[in-house]
Structure formats: structure tokens, C-alpha cells
Write a structure and sequence with these properties.
single chain; 2 domains; ten-stranded mixed beta sheet
């Protein structure tokens, strides 16, 4: 799974089995998920046309699930909890009509799920959204235009995704953290440079960390001075390319992919290339890095 923003749209690319409550929704296999910020004055009577236009301009065709929002995608929150990554854009009015606004949630899993588990994921995310809004004393459990996408890729592993399962617990915690953060970013106004990124860390006890790039990171430089930190959490993880990383035994049992020594996307020129061409494959990035070395 890889994601990037381009022209008011947050794209998530992969090879997904997905379920969507949005327009053109349902359950099917897709290559792309996206959340698009509609411009002021757009035709509210034809949202289907807007989705088709975005997909056509991006060259991704009908093999996609898309959502629409009035919230700038740069105000989104991205939350990673192990194999679960959640993307949230949220805006809601406090004054009447209090139900106005939109909250879009996209959940991706790098571990495969049965179709029933994908539907359970939508239920868990929606329940957590309502719980988060009530905790903020908002007079609503959602808005009339909210939508959720649940998607997975990889080997089938999860038959269930209820709130106490491995998948459901992570989805719930990410949404509970992400909803207030996304609303805070939206209410603050302005257009940030990029979505906020949060990761669940077990270092010194389990807690959420708001990751910030560059010199603001307490671990900088983790590789070398002058490194690029735009992709500290690699979009290709786990790439399983043994020239870049290796499998190691996990303290919790089983094996995890360790790429701590990889500097591919920390090389400034390589990172700049990937920001310019976000759809580039890992193989293309490796070849580009080798040309620089030469």
C-alpha cells in the first residue's frame, strides 16, 4: 500500500479487496482508493460525475473506490497501528444545523481479510467515530454524508474484525485518536503542507506518537546528516527485498521485516524523485538510486 496527495486528492494505491459505503460502493477488488476535496461551487447534484472525473484525470479508470469531502485533504490525519493504517478527513459544524459536515474514514490492512471482516471493519470504524464525537460533546454521531472504506491486501489472515479482535482493536484505537485530531486540524483553518501522521509506538509503553520530519525528530539523524526524512515510515514497507532489509525474530513471537539499515528513501535526491513521481515502483526507485551512486 502506498499513498500520496495530488491536486486536492489523497490517493491510496495497492492491490485491494475492499468494501465501500460511498457512491459506486459495494465489495470488489480495486487498485486505488481516493478521497477528493471538492471545489467551492461544484455541482452538488452530480457527485457521481465528480468521482468519474477525478478517476479519469488520474488515469485509474473504474477500478477504484472514491469519496468526496469539502475538507482539504492536507488536513487529513493518517494513523498507523501495526498492520492497520487509517486515513481520516473530518469537518463538522457546532452551530445549527449541527449535523452538517462530512467525516470520511478509509481503513487499510496489510493483512488479508474475508469479506465479512471488511464489513465488520466498517462497523467498528463507524462505532468508534460515534464514540469519539460523543466524547467531544458534539450533538451528533455522524453526518448524513459520512462514508467509510475498508480495504485489505496480502495473504488471508483475518476471518473476523470485531472490536476485540487483532484488527478491530487497532481500527477502533486509530479512529478514536484520529477523529479529534482531524477535527482540530480542520477547525484550526489554513492548509498544512501535508497530512498529519501518527504511529502507535510500543517504545517505553504503548502510546501514539505524532511524527514530525527532519530536525524536529528526537532521533535525527538516524542514518546520516543531511538525510531526507519525508518518508521515515517507508511507503514500500514491508518490501521483502533482501537487498534492503531482512526478516528477524520478533520479541512478541514470529518474524517481522527489519529495514533499519536501509537508506533508500533517506537519500535526498531519491526522496525528491519519489515526491515528483509518487507512483514510481520500488524497483524504479532502486534503479534511480544506483544511477546516482554511479
Amino acid at each position: 500500500m502506498r499513498y500520496y496527495s495530488d491536486k486536492n486528492t489523497l490517493f491510496i494505491c495497492g492491490s485491494f479487496r475492499a468494501a465501500s459505503t460511498g457512491l459506486f460502493g459495494g465489495i470488489r477488488s480495486v487498485s486505488t482508493l481516493f478521497n477528493h476535496t471538492v471545489p467551492q461551487g461544484w455541482d452538488h447534484n452530480n457527485p457521481e460525475k465528480e468521482l468519474e472525473r477525478v478517476a479519469a484525470e488520474a488515469g485509474i479508470g473504474p477500478d477504484t473506490f472514491g469519496l468526496l469531502t469539502a475538507v482539504p485533504v492536507e488536513q487529513a490525519c493518517v494513523l498507523q497501528y501495526d498492520f492497520i493504517t487509517v486515513f481520516i478527513t473530518a469537518g463538522i459544524r457546532r452551530e445549527p444545523p449541527a449535523t452538517a459536515g462530512t467525516i470520511n474514514i478509509m481503513v487499510t490492512s496489510s493483512e488479508g481479510m474475508e469479506d465479512a471482516a471488511l464489513l465488520e471493519t466498517i462497523m467498528v470504524a463507524t462505532e468508534a467515530k460515534a464514540e469519539a464525537l460523543l466524547a467531544l460533546d458534539l450533538p451528533a454521531t455522524g453526518t448524513p454524508t459520512d462514508a467509510v472504506i475498508a480495504a485489505c491486501e496480502g495473504e488471508l489472515k483475518h476471518r473476523y474484525a470485531g472490536r476485540i479482535t487483532e484488527a478491530g482493536l487497532r481500527v477502533r484505537e486509530a479512529v478514536l485518536r484520529g477523529i479529534p485530531e482531524a477535527l482540530r486540524r480542520h477547525d484550526a483553518g489554513g492548509i498544512p503542507d501535508h497530512p498529519a501522521f501518527f504511529i502507535y509506538s510500543r517504545f517505553k509503553g504503548g502510546h501514539w506518537v505524532h511524527w514530525t520530519p527532519g530536525a524536529e525528530c528526537p532521533y535525527y539523524p538516524c542514518h546520516f546528516k543531511g538525510q531526507a526524512c519525508d518518508f521515515c515510515y517507508c511507503p514500500f514497507y514491508p518490501c521483502k527485498d533482501e537487498s534492503l532489509g531482512q526478516w528477524i525474530e520478533s520479541s512478541g513471537g514470529g518474524k517481522v521485516w527489519n529495514c533499519a539499515a536501509c537508506t533508500l528513501l533517506h537519500e535526498p535526491d531519491v526522496a525528491a524523485y519519489y515526491k515528483k513521481f509518487p507512483q514510481a515502483s520500488r524497483e524504479e526507485m532502486v534503479q534511480f538510486a544506483r544511477k546516482i551512486v554511479k
